[in-house]
Amino acid sequence: MKLGVNIDHVATIRNARGGKHPSPIKAAEIAEKSGANSIVVHLREDRRHIKEKDIQYIIKNIKIPLQLEIAPTKFMFNYAINNNIKKVCIVPEKRKELTTEGGLDLNKNFKFLSTNLPKLINKGIEVSLFVDPIPDNIVIVKKLGVKAIEIHTGSYANSQNRKNNIHLKKIKNITKIALNNQIRVSAGHGLNFDNVKNIIKITGIEELNIGHFIIGEAIFYGLENVILKMLNLMKTKKK
Ligand code: PXP
């Protein structure tokens, strides 16, 4: 199982003062050096954290893959097409939310996605859709011709009861259904050292994308140490 490190919140802290420090680019360099498998950034409509300049630098200087999270809008799709982006995850976006609060509403976005996703796919851009663990979503993902999903793990991460957890069951179930339909699976949102333990036991999830916890924990223990600890945890898959 691979680890994508989302560095958005390094930019959040930088932007709080409008200067250059702390640098998300330095964070990307440290993540790469520490063994992260990819860098994840979300270019939000309001540019509250990552900005275009950060993405340009990462594309030029970081060797591990970049996954760009973008909202289903014409501007963002054109941005991906015109800026040599190799991998995108389509995520929902609301101006007033603090974070990406749930998966994409595929029914609501079906028309836009069915018209515009081929523009990305035909350019050779790898596309995944950020979805809640609801089996019906797989039917629509297939209709859209998309070959990968990222499961939104927020409901599981926010829930208290870790044993017999209904949200965990849903994640396991949608992973199975996706794999049976030749759809690749990654997962993320709200994961930390504790709740990730159940997720890493699920066979078939290829990659976890983790941001807020890693960056927050890095304040106390350093980014490299936190990434190494997460990578080690992901290797052990303890019962
Ligand atoms: N994956 C996707 C598609 C996301 O949008 C986010 C956060 O916005 C994450 C993973 C990481 O979530 P977190 O910051 O809670 O670890």
Description:
By secondary structure, the protein is α/β, with parallel strands linked by helices. The protein has one domain: Aldolase class I (TIM Barrel, Alpha-Beta Barrel). Helix content is 46%, strand content 17%. The chain has an eight-stranded parallel barrel with strand order 1-2-3-4-5-6-7-8, surrounded by seven helices. β2, α3 and β3 form a beta-alpha-beta unit. The longest helix has 15 residues. Bound molecules: pyridoxine-5'-phosphate (PXP). Pyridoxine-5'-phosphate binds next to β8 and α10.
Tell me briefly what this model is.
This protein has helices at residues 8-17, 24-34, 52-61, 74-82, 110-122, 136-143, 154-158, 166-180, 196-199, 212-221, 223-236; strands spanning 2-6, 38-42, 66-70, 87-90, 126-131, 148-152, 184-188, 205-210. Helix content is 46%, strand content 17%.
Spell out the blueprint of helices and strands.
Layout: E1 2-6, H1 8-17, H2 24-34, E2 38-42, H3 52-61, E3 66-70, H4 74-82, E4 87-90, H5 110-122, E5 126-131, H6 136-143, E6 148-152, H7 154-158, H8 166-180, E7 184-188, H9 196-199, E8 205-210, H10 212-221, H11 223-236
Parallel strand pairs: 1-2, 1-8, 2-3, 3-4, 4-5, 5-6, 6-7, 7-8
The structure holds pyridoxine-5'-phosphate.
Pyridoxine-5'-phosphate binds at residues 6, 42, 69, 89, 91, 99-100, 130, 150, 188-191, 209-213.
